[in-house]
Amino acid sequence: MSLTFALAARDGAARAGVLNTAHGAIATPCFMPVGTAATVKAMTADAVRATGAEIVLANTYHLMLRPGAERVARLGGLHRLMDWPGPILTDSGGFQVMSLAKLRKLDADGVTFRSHIDGSAHRLTPERAIDIQDKLDATISMVLDECTPFPSSHAAAAASLDLSLAWAERSRAAFRARPGYGLFGIVQGGVYPDLRARAAAALIATGFDGYAVGGLAVGEGQAMMLTVLEATVPLLPADRPRYLMGVGTPDDIIAAVARGIDMFDCVIPTRAGRTARAYTSRGVFNLRNARFADDPGPLDPDCACPACTRHARAYLHHLFRAGEMLGPMLLTWHNLRYYQDLMRRLRAAIGQGRLAEVAAALRAGWGETERAV
Question: Has 134 been annotated as catalytic?
């Protein structure tokens, strides 16, 4: 395999380790800020680095549309283009197969998208998805799959899984192995344990550098998501990283780490930052709320980001009420720092054998969460 993954500690099913890549090492469990279009929204690359992030995510479908994989390659690759020399993971476009269902036609060979930007037609096959990720110089590439929607019948989920497994084999065959680069398979199968088991067995037989669990956090709810993880994660190789795609809230992450997941990505912290929602050690706050208008205190006294150390809650409230772009910038920075601090605490807790204790303390601290947010 092209990537190396070493576990340093375990606490129950939870693991702490290091994933070594061509572009640097990643301490796990980790959270990957989402930089869909080669940028983490409202953040400079220096700001993302300052949060403690070691890897970011970009998206094959969106970069295929603009600026185009060939152009990115001519300009020196995604790392140079977005000033991120560290590891980059690229989603293959499989999520868009579900989320842009009205703009695509699916067949056994691949999927044809009608661009949401200008209506132009674009074709993705497993081979083309891998080629695009190669041109982007993605450190970790993902197989092209069909993200199974929820709800789906067992028959529909099985048919979708058959397609994803066929595409996974083609993706593996098309992938150009290089030292420090890797390709992850994606376990689909909806909410059905037998399908998840079949997917895991087939992907392991094909052989990948890591294994993602896809098709969750799409409406099934946390309880069902955790049930699926409990049935699926133990089937995955212990010596390979495990990635839960598109998850999630801090509570989701804590629960998934406890079940053996190593890698996460989600738009929640950045999207929330742009809409005045702050994730803090005290809970989730809406900074547009009038109760913050005269509040001189820090957003989160336990956070060392610029929003918390240099500004009052009242100022952040003012920025959002005035429509100033600095508000989303500062709150995005804070949320990403909060997520990275959370991952650091979880890694340390696993190393100390105190994950359950630390998780309980974190959850207890969220008592001020505004339920209406």
Answer: no
Is there a catalytic annotation at residue 341? Answer: no
1 pLDDT band (50/70/90 cuts)?
A: low
Lowest mean pLDDT among 113-122, 285-294, 307-316, 354-363: 113-122
Tens digit of each residue's pLDDT (9 = 90 or more) over 227-266:
999 999 999 999 999 999 999 999 999 999 999 999 999 9
**242 strand-pairing partners:** 211
Whole-prediction pTM? 0.97
Among residues 266, 290, 321, which one ends one of the domains?
A: 266
Helix (H, G, I), strand (E, B) or coil at 92: coil
Cα 361 to Cα 282, 298, 352, 355, 366, distances in angstroms:
11, 21, 15, 10, 9
Catalytic residue among 91, 134, 137, 341: 91
Tell me, yes or no, whether 373 lies in a domain.
Answer: no
Last residue of a domain, one of 266, 287, 317: 266
- DSSP assigned state of 83: T
